[in-house]
Structures are given as structure tokens and as C-alpha cells.
Amino acid sequence: MINLKISTAQFENKSGDKDYNLSVIEKLSGEAASKGSHVIAFHECSITGYTFARKLNREQLLDVAELIPDGKSIQKLKEIAENYNITILAGLFEKDENDNLFKAYVCVDKTGLVTKYRKLHPFINPNLTPGNEYCIFEIHGWKCGILICYDNNIIENVRATKLLGADIIFMPHVTMCTPSTRPGAGFVDPKLWGNRVADPTSLRLEFDGMKGRDWLMKWLPSRAYDNAAYVIFSNPIGMDDDQLKNGCSMIIDPFGDIIAECRSFDDSFETAVITPEKLTQAGGYRYIQARRPELYKDIIGMDHLSEQKVVWIDSKNN
């Protein structure tokens, strides 16, 4: 495996405006490529926008969704990847030939679609169908996986993706700054975003506190540390529909250390070089080798009825 130069991006998307969002993806991809990046990753539904979909009926969501790989957005990603010789990961709503709807994330390079992943735990719209399989693929000899947002909160998904061979796990999100039963959680006032030039301090305090980054640090580094994997976290900055998001797109190494992080309020990306040596130097590698599945395989595999509740999407919060 080569030393791989990866960029993680964040930008303020426009709801339902795929042409605009793809133009930003093109701009940031070109800039990353000019600085030597092999790969750039964008957030969940970065092509279509995300939070606005909670207001759409089935027909409206079908209008936003695209076939993969035949849809126009995938063809545009291929064009961008070919023009700049960079691998791009981005998200959108997908429909299949039977009009089933999914939350998808794709990897595209100059040859076209490399892989497609469907979110296992979608919730933003009741018409979405959950995905039913993990995704393992290669970028320049590196084994990679994808888990979208809520998928990463179920720790078994991350361990399963690692055990299937992934040394890099792309984790696209639209997260933070929403209500929760967790102390300190809640929306961030959009007025702070509008006043960010005159008063960046108040906005940064909200973004970095328990509504945002402080919560992320409770769990995200541990996903990398426990699984001896590189984590590529991407998240939007600015307004996503009527909700303000705080970015913090970052790259975490197998030691659980943040090696790159976006700290700008602007559309931006940050880059890190990932090296194969860390995969076996990190403690998680040894812990995975020391596992004793005979002790817990029947416990983990017990019958269970999945129940997914998202506090902020309750109608009283919309």
C-alpha cells in the first residue's frame, strides 16, 4: 500500500440544488488534487442536501433521487474525477428501477463508479429503505469501508466493517447541533451563523461545546482506536435546511489521534497522509488479535428487535 494522501471536506450545501452542490464538490476536488491529494471525501447527501428531505413526500423524494450509476450526478462526479485525477466520495438519495428509495454514498474515480453503499439506519424520511450489506472496496491498494452517520453509532457495524478487511472507514455525516436527551445538546441559533464575521467567538463556543465537537470527541476517536483503522469523518458547515451544522470534518489515525481537521467557517478541506505502518503499530491491532469470539458470539448474535428512535426528528422539534 502506498502512503495515501486523503482530504476531508466540508461545505454549506443548498437543499435540492444538485448543480450548485456539485459545483462546490468540483471546486474543492480540483483544489485538493492540485495539492497532491489522491482522495477527497464529502458529507452525507452532499450532492442533494439532507435535512430538507424530512419534509418531502414519496413523489417529491423520488424527484430528488437518482439511479446509480446512470444518474446525472454520478456522471458528473466521473467527469470531475477524470479531469483532476482524484477519487471522490459523496452522498445522495438513490432510487432503483422499482422506485425503492435509499440513502446512498458513492466512490467514483476516473473510470466511473467504484462502489455504492446504502445507509443501514436511515431515518430522515419514512420512505427510505434500509441497506442490508456492508461495503468493502479498494483505493490504491487500501481496503476501505463506508458507514453513514447513524450507522457508526451502532458499534457492531464498525467492528464488522473492520473484520471484513477495512483499514480506512469513511464516515460521512450530517450531525451535531440537534436536540437530545444528552445534557448540553440542542440546536445552535442560526443568527450566530449570520453574524459569524462580526462575532466568530460566540459561534465557535457553540460549535465546539457539548452541542457539537465535545460530544463528537466522546465517541468518534474510539471507533478508530478500538479498530486500528483510519477514520475519515466528513460533515457539513453552515445551514442545512433550517438547521445549523458545525463541520469539524477530520481524519483520525489508528491511535485515535486527530491528524487533520477543518476549523474554518468557509467551504474547505484538510488533508493528511496515511501510512500503513500505523495499522499494526496501534494497540487496537493487538486487541483484535486477542479476541475470543467463542465467549460472545452467541451473545452478540441473540435475537433482537431493532428499534431506532431519533429525538430531534420528533414532530415537536420540526
Describe the structure.
By secondary structure, this protein is of the alpha/beta class. 29% of the residues lie in helices and 24% in strands. It is built from eleven helices and 14 strands. The protein has helices spanning 18-34, 58-64, 72-84, 155-163, 190-194, 200-208, 213-216, 220-227, 277-281, 283-289, 293-300; strands spanning 4-10, 39-41, 87-95, 101-109, 112-118, 136-139, 142-146, 168-172, 230-234, 237-240, 243-246, 250-252, 258-261, 268-274. Strands 5-4-3-2-1-14 form a six-stranded mixed β-sheet. A six-stranded mixed β-sheet has the order 6-7-8-9-12-13, with helices on one face. Strand 3 (87-95) and strand 4 form a beta hairpin. Helix 1 (18-34) packs parallel to helix 3 (72-84) and helix 8 (220-227) packs across helix 10. The protein is globular. The model has no long low-confidence stretch (mean pLDDT 97).
Topology:
Blueprint: E1 4-10, H1 18-34, E2 39-41, H2 58-64, H3 72-84, E3 87-95, E4 101-109, E5 112-118, E6 136-139, E7 142-146, H4 155-163, E8 168-172, H5 190-194, H6 200-208, H7 213-216, H8 220-227, E9 230-234, E10 237-240, E11 243-246, E12 250-252, E13 258-261, E14 268-274, H9 277-281, H10 283-289, H11 293-300
Parallel strand pairs: 1-2, 2-3, 7-8, 8-9
Antiparallel strand pairs: 1-14, 3-4, 4-5, 6-7, 9-12, 10-11, 12-13
Helix pairs in contact: 1-3, 8-10
Question: What descriptive keywords fit this protein?
Answer:
318 residues, six-stranded mixed beta sheet, 14 strands, alpha/beta, 11 helices
